[in-house]
Amino acid sequence: MNCFELFAGCGGLGYGFHKESFNIVACNELEKEISYTYKENFPETNVIVGDITKNEIKEQIYDNFKNKKCDVILGGPPCVAYSMAGRRNTRDPRGQLFKDYIEVVEKLQPKIFVMENVKGILTMKHDKNELTANEKEIADRYYELETKKLVLQDKKKKLSCEDKNDEIKEEETKEINKELKKINSNIKKMEKDLHKFRINVTDIIKNTFKKLGYNVEMKLLNSANYGVPQKRERVIFIGIKNNIDKIIKYPEITHNKEGTDGKIKWVTVKDAIDDLKNKKNDISSSHIYTSHSEKFIEKIKNTPIGKSVNPKYTEAFFRCKPEEPSNTVKENHGGVFIHYEKDRVMTPRELARLQSFPDDFIFKGSKTKILVQLGNAVPCGLSHSIAKEIKKLLN
């Protein structure tokens, strides 16, 4: 079962397929430093480093399958433009990378593909592939308003951090809010015309694959329901060639919150990492502690479980509830979870446990880069459950 993995990262999605004896012939990762982690853990896979939008990178990929059939393609196009947590930009080129995924599928013609993305993609709309002159005019006008709104939001955020007289800041903020109110009003007036030039991203994806000859299903999966100590929700697209007479099935839920109806109780944060809380700093296993200032430690001490150190943020420096799976693990520019018992942020290895990476999985790079890898990864427990179902489809 020969595979290709696109947008590979450190290999969270690929992990489950490796465990199920799929032969991941090659993978592609944009960042060289992140690629070292994949190479370290999956040495038999040819890791192609570079920008998938470049033809020379695509040619390197295709060369790996000149003498062998590609049975499965895996990958999660970067989700920056789709994220519910971030500000959405419908024309962000990073939100268009699914087109490169589709291009690779069209070229290699796998029997099955698996595509992963964030929950936000379910409500994201993009411009239609083809617009009339009138539709494009409306779309451009709407996008111009969206762009102005983002600029003003940035300006307002920057102003709040500037060292200016409070009265001046208040006056300038008032002007920005006035402009934002006007723009929001204009955006609202145009919402009735959205259907003329925009369509759900999920419909674009499904319709495009159907034209390529694939039956496509889509489902939102919660990682906690598959034994992962984290409530991370991901949309999983599975496509299978029309000429393969198999019904697409998603992995059956094995866990639930209460452990009822024959299911196992969710794995909690404490279940996953409690044995690491007193372990010494160990760079080799990525159990790396962060040095905090006395002032910040004091803030942590005053932060109750289920709250963030900074009340303005709901995710960064959030103190995890020990008796539940964690919230979604994110890199958050270093603003990772606070330990439920210790007055410190969690180590990369603790976060890796929440992502269900085994302890023998080796992360390469600086601590900052490891946090990025962890924040972008598909939990291993979820990928393994998916891989088992894909294996059934191919047997």
Fraction of helical residues: 25-40%
Under CATH, the topology of the largest domain can be stated as Rossmann fold
User: Quick check: average pLDDT?
Assistant: 91
Count of the domains: 3
Strands of the largest sheet, in order across it? 3-2-1-4-5-9-8
DSSP strand content = 5-15%
The shape is globular
Low-confidence stretches: 80-95
Number of strands: 11
Assigned CATH class of the largest domain = Alpha Beta
H/E element string?
EHEHEHEHEEHHHEHEEEEHHHHH
CATH level 4 superfamily of the largest domain: Vaccinia Virus protein VP39
Number of helices: 13
Radius of gyration: 23 Å
What quaternary form is this?
single chain
CATH second-level architecture of the largest domain = 3-Layer(aba) Sandwich
Termini separation (Å)? 10 Å
Broad structural category: alpha/beta
